[in-house]
Write a structure and sequence with these properties.
The complex is a heterotrimer of chains A (637), B (246) and C (221).
Chain A: H1 15-22, H2 28-31, E1 35-39, H3 43-55, E2 58-62, E3 80-81, H4 93-103, H5 110-130, E4 155-156, H6 162-180, E5 183-186, E6 189-197, E7 200-208, E8 214-218, E9 221-224, H7 245-252, E10 257-258, E11 263-269, E12 292-296, E13 313-314, H8 316-320, H9 330-342, E14 354-357, H10 359-365, H11 367-385, E15 394-403, E16 406-407, E17 420-422, H12 440-460, H13 473-492, E18 496-497, H14 498-512, H15 519-539, E19 540-541, H16 551-575, H17 599-602, E20 604-609, E21 618-623
Chain B: E1 3-9, E2 18-24, H1 33-46, E3 69-70, E4 73-74, E5 96-100, E6 109-111, E7 114-115, H2 118-127, H3 147-157, H4 164-168, H5 175-187, H6 189-192, H7 195-208, H8 219-223, H9 231-244
Parallel strand pairs in B: 1-5
Antiparallel strand pairs in B: 1-2, 3-4, 3-5, 6-7
Helix pairs in contact in B: 2-7, 3-5, 5-7, 5-9, 7-9
Chain C: H1 2-5, H2 7-32, H3 39-50, H4 53-84, H5 99-102, H6 104-123, H7 142-151, H8 153-180, H9 188-215
Helix pairs in contact in C: 2-4, 2-8, 2-9, 4-6, 6-8, 8-9
The chains are: A alpha/beta (637), B alpha+beta (246), C mainly alpha (221).
Chain lengths: 637, 246, 221
Amino acid sequence: MILDGKCPKGPIQTSWDRHRFDLKLVNPANKRKYKILVVGTGLAGGAAAASLGELGYNVEAFCYQDSARRAHSIAAQGGINAAKNYPNDGDSIYRLFYDTIKGGDFRAREADVWRLAQVSNNIIDQCVAQGVPFARDYAGYLDNRSFGGAQVSRTFYARGQTGQQLLLGAYSALSRQVKAGTVKLFARTEMLDLVVVDGEAKGITVRDLITGEIRTHVGDAVVLATGGYVNVFYLSTNAMGCSVTANWRAHKKGAFFANPCYTQIHPTCIPQSGDHQSKLTLMSESLRNDGRCWAPKKKGDNRHPNEIPEDERDYYLERKYPSFGNLAPRDIASRAAKEQCDDGRGVGPGGRGVNLDFSAAIQRVGEDTIRERYGNLFEMYEKITDENAYKQPMRMYPAPHYSMGGLWVDYNCESNVPGLFVLGEANFSVHGANRLGASALMQGLADGYFVIPYTIANYLAKTKPGAVKADHPECKKSIEDVKSYNNRLLNVNGKKTVSEFHRELGKIMWENVGMARSEETLKDAIKKIPVLREEFWKNVKVTGKGEELNQQLENAGRVADFLEFGELMAKDALHRNESCGGHFRVEHQMPDGEAKRDDENYCYVGAWEFKGVDKEPELHKEPLAFENVHLAVRSYK
Amino acid sequence: MNLTLHVWRQSGPKEPGKLEQYEAKNVSPDQSFLEMLDEVNEHLIKEGKDPIVFDHDCREGICGMCSQVINGVPHGGQERTTVCQLHMRRFNDGDTIYIEPWRALAFPILKDLIVDRDALEKIMQAGGYTSCHTGGVADGNALLVPKPDADYAMDAAECIGCGACVAACPNGSAMLYTSAKVAQLAALPQGKAEAAERVCAMTDAMQAAGFGNCSNHYECQAACPKGINVKFIARLNREYQKALFK
Amino acid sequence: MRILTSSVGRKILMSITGQLLIIFVLIHLIGNSTIFFGPNGINAYAEHLHSLPPLVWGFRLFMLAAVAVHICYGVMLTLENKAANPGAYAVKKNLKKSFASENMIWTGLLLATFIVYHLIQFTIKGTPDIVIGLDSLNRPDVFKMVVTSFGNALISLVYLAAMVMLFLHLSHGIPSFLQTMGWNNEKTIPVFATGGKVISTILMLAYISIPAVILAGLLKL
């Protein structure tokens, strides 16, 4: 099937304005009759629930954490982009649009990206009004800094905690609506199924994580803002609870999964210290504004980094990409780091690390300035590694960080299942094959504050409110299905723990579907994952009962989904016989090791339809047209 | 290293709980505290026992989910550090470690080390926001915020809402948590309009949720993983007095 | 009247009444110091004071009200605070709180008991040690009364103990009232903490100096 993104035709500059006019509206008096279920309370979900509640809809919001303020958007450090052009350095909506399309290696929809760039300015205004304490200069104006993949300073920030501050802004707006009674919040509640009635999304089945109760919430539309899936690698920068579960269960109910192979491996994370490791910690990309990446020129050089003289250091990013230098986009910086380590020139335990050196910056601007800029990051680094980065270089290694892929949505953020909307990292829409720094926060808030409030009305206006009741047979069936699925997990009673399986899956994924993929490794993964999955269902040990607070059961469900999803990811990576952005196939590279796209054959969105576990998924394509930015080889030299 | 753990086990909110002893063997100094507990749990599962449940999520010290009192100090006593960022190199071979949940009237224990912190939500919902509408706001630079004010607001805004201040407070008070939000918004021009209503509503909600009153022990600041300063409590008191005359 | 019922409002009341009591403690000390000038000093001061009965009684009632508010709300807040913290930690290590801050209610209640005793003794003149008489100028001989009573080591010891309570109460009370009034910031917090200790030490020593000097025989009849 050829998918239609339903993008507005005509000049892109006015596309969103024209589209907004074409969208249907819901009468203010009727809005409260519509119930909208919002799953996830990160930047996208929190902003969406707050905005929809404010408009007068009857909103129910769900999160698995104990508070809406804890979603993993909170961990984003660096900043949020906007085309304000406050520094007068040549930025514009068009440039932000262009940079995002190019940064995504020409695998995103132009219209979606344009809209993102256009509303980026509103986001900053909105957050300022909420009381987000963005960095200011001495005159009191908003301050900007530059960020990876851009040559202008368009990134707004709040120390090293921008994601936290933006999320707290959205959370405060949400709290206001909870008080006003328009939003009802269900914390510690995990979505385990999508209820589809007559082909439309009309509810979700959830598990109350305290009591273990399985129940269905019905609504007139469902909004998924459930984040990304890179925990499929086991070790990633995501929070422990981040999973593909909500998306995957929706996928099993008919929603197409688009571009699952597009995963971002972030270049600056603290290297793994041992087998005990449960997650990896990211160090903001902003560090590359002042830090210089280098590896020893000599293989196996075990000297202390401070003892390696200048002429024996290879500042590989500056060497390879003179114009962007240390600010090269993430996919490029990550692969370059991997290259150094594969070449036997890595540093630290196991040789999986490169140096990020601040000594030149400290000499230039002084330690105090560096402390003011990145103090909290240096502190965090010291807590984890016991090393003082003011005195010696940080050690960095790439780690899975973000998923550009996600459920397929059209221009209205609506999936192929009518009534199911997907926002933020959970959808696939704007980042193409690679996301630029400070763009995830922008997308989450754009979708939540400024897209869904308009586009959801277009769907609701066509439906009768409250058409499906909680006693609908589909709801009962969904509850039964979830219960029996959980019982199956509890009754295997094998010998291996859930996290042992997760680790094994992570190892398969990282080695075969990680930073560098080949036909051989992908086929290997596609062979191994089903074997592991089968073993899981025969030999997993899940303690406790379903009707209680049971973290093992929660994790078992999530890992079970990853065991199915991982296979799809590998299949997508195998089918995409090109390299682009975060998807790097070793067979397809330029002589200098850069990703080599195949626009002739792969300039499309690959959206997969679920046909059953152990059955071949079906591929649907949405061709991508580039009318405003010309398809070109991405170069950051 | 090998450690002896005394962990609070409680199967439900109404059930009695008690400390149980576990041995953590071959702990690496590079492990985080939670990774050490993960490993203890792996052993418990293999022995067919119920693993210890505890709240955790981001494991990078920002989400505020993790909440354990370790040897009598919330988050374990390393300055400006959450449990998830506490590393085992802070402990010595042979140490005995007591691990308990947050304890306060307003935080009922749900299971083992997990408590219900919904009371903190109630405080935020009472007024921890500016009543601006989505869209229709002024340009970000229309309101100038002097850098010292922005920095002050940011210092307050660093609160991660973990509740360690309550757990540490001899009065089970949430004044530091409440004051951080009150001070942040009172320091910014966009929050000033509602400052008086906010401080009254939020402190009333704090009282109604069963938190105690501040008596200036400052245990909260000492336990706070973000080092939120008690000067914000003074700011709250100041804002409150202004509100009294409105 | 949210000041009477709210968490912060009642703390502010505690702070304001506390400040009034501190001011009283200061004035009382200055007045009492006239004893060092011998019978002429303190007897003249006492007579002067009592020559204005409406003022004396107005002041007394005002102080009584302040004490009553301070005690009532102190007890109420302490009971609430105890309830809010079930105190069930098997191990609890305090990083910051002091003996003084922890025991405000006890030092406060002991001080209240002492005030009752003090009033019965020297105001109502109802304790057996009191010597009532007139001096050579026909004024009530306060000097003789005080010197006689403090000549009793046991009585002096009671006063000394009470002043230690006063020290403990004020060493937390002074910085605390500044904080509760909101007259505090990052820089002043440590300054006030030290200042509170210094001022309460000075007050304690100054008050103790009276019985000490008498017991040492430096002030004689």
